[in-house]
Amino acid sequence: MANERAHVDPEQLSTLAENLRQYSSAISLLMEDLDLGLNRLGHTFQDETYFDFRSSYQVARQQLVEFAEETRRYWPLLEHDIEDLRAFLRRRVD
Asked: Residue 4: pLDDT above 80?
C-alpha cells in the first residue's frame, strides 16, 4: 500500500452516517408495526398463503434485523472517523 490516500469529505460522510442511522431506526419501527399487523391478521386469517407469507417475512425480517444491528455497530465508528477527519483537516489548514 505505497502512498495510498483517501479523499473523503467529512461532511458527506457525516450525512451518509446520519442517513444510515435514520434508515436503521425507521426499519426497526416499521418492522414493529408489521409484526403487530401480521400477528393481528394471524388471529383471524390463517390459510396456506398466510403461512407462506409469514415464513418469507420471517426470513426477510431476520436479514433486516441483522442489517440494523450491523448499522448500530458501525455508526459510532463512522462518527469517530468523521471527527478524526475533521481534526486532521483543521490541522492541515492551521
From this structure: no
Distances (CA, A) of 28 to 5, 25, 59, 63: 36, 5, 15, 12
Q: Are 20 and 71 in contact (CB under 8 A)?
A: yes
Lowest-pLDDT choice from 19-23, 46-50, 57-61, 90-94: 90-94
Instruction: Answer yes or no: are the C-beta atoms of 14 and 81 closer than 8 Å.
Output: no
Residue 82 · residue 14 · CB < 8 Å: yes
- The C-alpha atoms of residue 39 and residue 54 are separated, in whole angstroms, by 9
In this predicted structure, the answer to whether residue 5 has a pLDDT above a threshold of 70 is no
Q: Read off the C-alpha cell for 10.
A: 467529512
The residue among 67, 63, 85, 62 whose CA lies nearest residue 20 is 67
